[in-house]
Design brief:
mainly beta, 5-stranded mixed beta sheet, 8 helices
Amino acid sequence: MSGCSVAAMLCVVGAPARADDPKPAAELPEVTVTAPSPIRARKPAVPRPNPGARVARSGTRAPAPAQQAQAAPPPPLQGVTPIITDQFATVTVVPNEELRRSGAATLGDLLNSKPGITGSSFAPGASSRPIIRGLDVNRVGIVENGIGGGGASDLGEDHFVPIDPLTSDQIEVVRGPAALRYGSTSIGGVVSAINNRIPQALPTCSTAPFQTYGLPASAPAAGSAPCVTAETRTSFSSVDRGVEGGVLLDAGGGNFALHADAYGRKTGDYSIPGYPYLFDQTRPVNGRQPNSAVQNEGASIGGSYFFSGGFIGAAITQTNALYHIPGIEGSDSRTRIDAHQTKFTAKGEYRPDSAAIDAIRFWAGATDYRHNEIGLADPADPTTDGIRQTFTNREQEIRVEMQMMPVNLRFATLTTAYGIQAGHQELNAPSPDNPGSVFNGLFGPNTNNRVAGYVFNELAFSPSTKAQIAGRVEHVSLNGSTPNFPVDYLPDGTPQANIARNPEYTPKSASVGLLQNLPGDLVASVTAQYVERAPKAAELFSRGGHDATATFDIGNPNLTIETAKTVEAGLRKATGPFRFEATAYYTQFSNFIYRRLTGVMCDDDFASCGTTGTELNQAVYSQRNALFRGFEFQSQYDVAQLGSGIWGIENQFDVVRATFPDGTNVPRIPPMRVGGGLFWRDANWLTRINLLHAFAQNDIAPIAETPTPGYNLLKAEVSYRTKLNPNMFGAREMLVGLVGNNLLNEKIRNSVSYTKDEVLLPGIGVRIFANLKF
């Protein structure tokens, strides 16, 4: 179970050698996270290279050849999820080797069992967006290599995230002050995908080290020969008769590095352990979730130029997806989404020879996204198959950060980083079903312009005591239109018209944190933050039916700024035979914006609401104060040496409660979960079995939400990794394995999904995977 893997990894890797051990235990590999803060620790000083010398990695210059000839670090053991102790709030890291073993097709499916994180699983294996501590869409940011992921996943739970774990090398989930770096729409946290599409290092063709957690290895010395490396990632799954594969190429020589990748995935309708429809027992089902097949593919090419003190690079990526939407309405109408995204990204870093400026970094991106929601206008007439809704998103973003040199204040060392961020977004969601009507589509054309400035200050009072103070101010200007509800027609009988809306907001945010090393290798953190969020376009301008989610959404152009005041305390230990992470948080929302289901049913215009025979749930964007509080825990314990490896236990627990002032529940909150398992691993093998129990969710909204039964999710896996002789096998490294999912074949429903009463998660299944490096 991926959610329990934190303890397991740290247990084995960080366990101290015992007197009777045949050999010392491996040391915990260094883990580098890039998403939480713009301030990066300085590396040991190295001589400045001659002009033309290359950068070793972002933030460090390539040392002289003699300094690079060092012994390779031991490879990280499999199954070890790092505990991050040098950040001011909880950070969950999914390293490269866990990504390869997981095989999840979406970020939501990948993170679904991590403490404090679930997935929306609207269409399992196709559209599942991460939900952090009960917060989703407009409160969870998703970035790829520091730039927004684009797409339209924050506009509807049925929309996919155009970032595929198959091509990612590391995933970071950041809570807390990260909102101040990425914007108020990251109030709940940030999910950051990292890959090598814009190379930050020249590839190395040495036969020595594994790359730790998917991060690039140091570049070879200037003047080295050109190098080309390749990697293949493939798997087969039984539950959906699925196959996926990817090829990644990296090449470098001189001052240039290039990257290219391509991937594809195809599945059929997945197997389920029972009848999916709770409130309609009349429909034929043949053991598979109807209308749940998936097909997607993508490709990218990018390159970087390295110069004295820095690098600059760019990439272009194409992502395509065609996936079906399960559920009664989706199955009857054969609803599927045909999505395409073209994205250009660039980033770079320069470390000047300056006494004041440590580094200047930038990220830039442009996205052109479009998807068509296709289905039958009349389920009884196959000739009515066609486009029912279109979503388009054209978005540009740039972010620049400048990190200053540390300053000695006598009582502390101060490191400051400044940042500016700007973006422009154009959205539209037309539909051919009501031409000329104000209800022609979910919302009309609208724009979102935003600009922000932020500052992070870190104070090192001593090697064991650090503090962080950060602030952000942004200005958001939106332009769109929506009619005045609740009427379709004016008093004189003429149809209601769209009214231009031009709201502007200036949200302000701040945070303060303390990080303290304690005896026994413990690290404690306390963070307080105040974050304001401007409403998004969908919350303001929605005014029509959304067939895939079966809702009739009504926006509110009078929404005000949402405010969250959070206190978070954590205690972590990342060394020794017992490692753990515990976090408690308390968030008070003022003017919390949420989609409130009214219990009224609608068709495709407002006049139809409340009439018989309608199928869309009326959902009105509303504001109320709300209170979120929760606790997360995960641990691992290395019990003893067994043969050539170590066996141990791991466990996890998470809970979140979210209520309004009158004691009623915030809609769609994940249930309390507890899990644990056993593992055994050595340098090559990993075996694990884990059980995650989700309790029944009865804390539900009073209208249009039903209780969800609990479940037990049993997973087991075995994998083997080894180096190979390239002369004999062609590949230099191999990772193969077998993973079993839902081995109890439980009927699992996700309480946070709008379609949970009509969609079961996949039943028992086995996945075989192989990863080869050349």
